[in-house]
Structures are given as structure tokens and as C-alpha cells.
Amino acid sequence: MRSRVPTAQTPPEAAAPSPGADRAAKLAVTVFPVLVLLAGAAGLLTPGTFDGWSANVPYLLGVVMFCMGLTMTPLDFKGVARRPWAVLIGLVAHYVIMPGLGWLVAHLLGLSPQLAAGVILVGCAPSGTASNVVTFLARGDVALSVSVATVSTVLAPLITPPLTLLLAGTYLPVDAGAMMGDILKTVLLPVLGGLLVRLVAGRIVTRVLGVMPWLSSVAIAAIVAAVVAASADSIKSAAVTVLLAVVLHNGLGLALGYGAGKLTRLGPPASRAMAFEVGMQNSGLAASLATAHFSPLAALPAAVFSVWHNISGALVAAVMAHRSRRRDREDAEPVAPPVPEPTP
């Protein structure tokens, strides 16, 4: 899911949401987890309904990424050139923190090889497609959020496979070359195709941009239903463990992402953006790769992550926005002039 909000042309101090955009973004991050949760429940309760759907997961992901490409403009890439240092910090934090946390969580919880590989693969995926919407709600630096998400997605074919091989190769065999080819076909080409269509038919695309988040949401929900249905027999025994792994992975990612922004002195709005660019993952891609290269069970962490990171992201964004507004009010309060001492 990706919803158009102020992007690279929006300065950090202008990131406070307008009432209309705020309502649209809140609706998107509220409805999306519910839709995905219902899809997961359907896959669990009626797995036979989704027989054969696993083969369609790469195509459904292609739809999601094409929709993402349609929402992008050249200004998103110009934002990278304007602030290369901040974007580099975001990329390094994303591709160091989340893969490392994935391996650490899998090791500490003693996950089975399939689940461990799935958790690590989630960590090695690029930024989540809803991260800029949640950054917008948190009154964060949306320009930085979009830039990091864009570059992490473009670089995913070069970074995700070798990272997965390095960290998950001890659990299961990893064909990094084949994985790279799949990411090129299901992520990079659809994104570039969407961007090209936007450049050629911008006026037409602008009229239907409001439909893109909902189309992406339906596609991701279908991915979750297919993944859950394919491993329905194993979910009951692994559900609690997988949920714990996902909550730890996501929660620590949000906290350490925010900490990375503070440590590098990027400022409060950029630190809020960093939290979501690090802690929210493209779980649709992780589910697709896990299904194709490991097993449906290995895709289960990605399916759970799809629901949880949107719920946690919306909650954390609400807290951050509340604190930001409170600081703004405190800064705006007039300071009473000092009372002169009486003259003797």
C-alpha cells in the first residue's frame, strides 16, 4: 500500500498534515490492517478456498509495486540528491538494523529453520510501502521517508539476496542469484513501469491515484490469504512464536531506527521518519520470496508482519504526533515579561 502524501518537495517543517490528507491517511492505515487481518482469517479457516493461490503471489506483488511506481515522480529522486547524507544514513540503518535483528530474534527464540529464514528474509527486505503514510501521520520528515523508501526499493535486488544468503544460509540453502532475478522481475521492473506510465500519462494517472492504495491493499490481502492458507496446518502450533518474533523484530526496529536518527543528529522530524523506514518492511516481497525459495511456512512471518507493522506503526505515529503538537503548543506560549523589582 502506498498513498500519496507530501514528498520530496515538502520541507521537514511543513510535514504537519492538512486536515483532508490527514483523514485520508488515517483511513488508509486503519482499513488496511483490518483488510489484511480478515484475509488471513479467511486463509486460516477456509484454506481450501485458496488452493493454488501461492503461484499467483509474485504477480500480486507486481501489482503492488506497479501501483507504488505510479505514485512516484522524478521529484522523489531529486530529494535524494538534495540530502544524500541523510538518505545514506537511512539506508545503512535500514539494511544493518533489521537484518541483524532478524537473525538475533530467530537465534534467541530458537526458531525452526523455516521460520528463522522467514524472519531474516523480512529483515532483509526494503522499506515498507506504507512507511511514508505513517511518517506523515507522525508529523515526520516525509521527504526523507520517501527518499529512503525509494532508494532501498531500487537497491533491493543488489542488497537483499546477499544479505539473506549471509544470515539465513546457515538455516536453509539460499540461491542468491535466483532471488535477485525474482526481485528484478517482481519489484524493480513493475516500479519502473509504473514510473514510466506516470511520466507518459501523468494527467490520467493523477485522476486515479486515489484508487492505488486500495488496489495495493487488496493485492497484499490476497498474498496474505494465500500464504496463510498454504501453511494453515502448521500455524496453530507456531502462531504464538511467530507473533512474538514479529513484535520483537518490529518494535526493536522502530526504536533503533528512531535512535539512529537521534544519534546522527538528523533532528526530530527526520528521526521520526527513520523509525518507520527502519521498522516497517516490504513484507509482501518477503512473503513472495519465502514462498518461491523456501516454503509457505517460511512466508508466515512476513504475513504476520504485514498486519502487525501497520498496527504498531499507526499507534507509534499517533504518540509521536501528540508529542509533537504538545511541543509546538509549548513553544508558542508567550513568555511573561519579568516583573521589575520595586524601587526602595
Automatic annotation (TrEMBL):
Keywords: Membrane, Transmembrane, Transmembrane helix
Bilayer-crossing regions: 27-45, 57-75, 87-109, 115-135, 142-163, 183-201, 208-232, 298-321
Coiled-coil ranges (or none): none
Gene3D superfamilies: 1.20.1530.20
Superkingdom classification of source: Bacteria
Major subcellular site: membrane
Membrane topology listed for this record: Multi-pass membrane protein
Region Disordered: start-end pairs: 1-20
InterPro entries given in the database record: BilAc:Na_symport/Acr3, Bilac:Na_transpt, Na+/solute_symporter_sf
Compartments in which it is found: Membrane
Pfam families (UniProt xref): SBF (PF01758)
Record has Transcription regulation as a keyword: no
Name of the featured protein: Bile acid:sodium symporter family protein
Species for this entry: Streptomyces evansiae
